[in-house]
Specification:
Distance between the termini: 20 Å
Order of helices and strands: HEEHHEEHHEHHEEHHHHHH
Number of helices: 13
Radius of gyration: 19 Å
Structural class: mainly alpha
Shape: globular
Mean pLDDT: 96
Length: about 300
């Protein structure tokens, strides 16, 4: 498939998203979780929508990124961000993903406010460190998850302060010692002393990205070897059929990190092209333009984050 056709498909998908989920609530711009709900998006969903808008900007496709970024302050609570504007407790994983997106936006736009947001978020994330290792999933909870620990560590490396880097290395070691499964992939979380062994593609992506960044930042080749081994293990574990039923936002994180690792980029690119071709052939609802057909995976049935 010609690259221009993929870009056109992305633009078409964005148009379907705008028609299905963009509108107003209480006379203000709002994004809904899907076409059949009045519920406005969570921070986790909004982060993915902004990331998609930023990617489309890189393709020179016109999207109103600033209007979407204007929604972010509604979630802010001190140095962190709430899952919804009316929530009481903050999720460490939500904040880590927003921090990583903020750094990507800082590079793409040159706006220093994005990097300042990431630095504030790191100060909040440090509060989530558990005395037994790892980063808590949520304020007041004991569960320590891959989805909070790995992206927090990646963000620490990306910001580059010496004490941040040392903490990232400690957290990376904890992930390997505590969450590594027998097939070489990363498990979901640990509750007390019990590992919850479910593996999701985005856990693998975040851990690959962490080790890749650590290798670049420290010159320690063992981290690159760890990233490569995990990449191969995850490609084995998440074959075409398993990937087809994974939530699309999880796959985005996984593929983004695989494509950034030269050792597996070619294989990952072929896998991604095949997946996208199947999405266009089988996964798109012809009436709405939303990717809700053909048994394609979903994140809790929320079509906005899936799109």
């Amino acid at each position: 498939m010609d690259p221009t056709r993929y870009a056109d498909a992305a633009s078409d998908a964005w148009g379907a998203l705008e028609r299905a989920a963009f509108g107003t609530k209480w006379f203000r711009f709002a994004v809904r979780e899907g076409p059949d709900t009045r519920t406005t998006v969570s921070l986790w969903t909004l982060t993915h929508v902004i990331a998609a808008a930023s990617d489309l900007r890189e393709l020179d496709r016109g999207v109103d990124l600033d209007r979407l970024l204007g929604l972010v302050p509604r979630f802010r609570a001190d140095e962190g961000y709430l899952p919804t504007p009316t929530s009481r407790l903050r999720f460490y994983d939500d904040n880590a993903w927003l921090g990583l997106l903020s750094l990507r936006l800082a590079v793409r736009t040159g706006d220093r406010e994005h990097r300042r947001r990431a630095a504030r978020i790191v100060r909040f994330l440090r509060r989530g460190i558990h005395p037994d290792g790892g980063i808590r999933w949520k304020e007041g909870h004991e569960s320590r998850n891959a989805c909070s620990t790995a992206p927090t560590s990646e963000l620490l490396v990306a910001l580059g302060a010496p004490d941040d880097l040392e903490l990232a290395r400690t957290l990376a070691a904890w992930i390997d010692e505590t969450l590594l499964r027998g097939d070489g992939t990363i498990a979901d979380r640990i509750e007390g002393t019990e590992q919850e062994p479910t593996a999701w593609s985005y856990h693998q992506g975040a851990a690959i990205g962490l080790h890749r960044r650590l290798a670049d930042a420290t010159g320690d080749a063992t981290h690159r070897g760890r990233a490569i081994r995990l990449a191969h293990a995850s490609l084995d574990a998440f074959g075409p059929e398993r990937s087809w039923t994974e939530p699309p936002p999880f796959l985005v994180i996984w593929f983004r990190e695989l494509l950034a690792l030269p050792d597996v980029a070619a294989e990952a690119g072929e896998r991604l092209r095949a997946h996208c071709d199947r999405m266009l052939d089988e996964g798109r609802d012809a009436a709405t333009g939303l990717f809700t057909a053909g048994g394609l995976g979903s994140y809790d049935g929320r079509s906005t984050i899936d799109q």
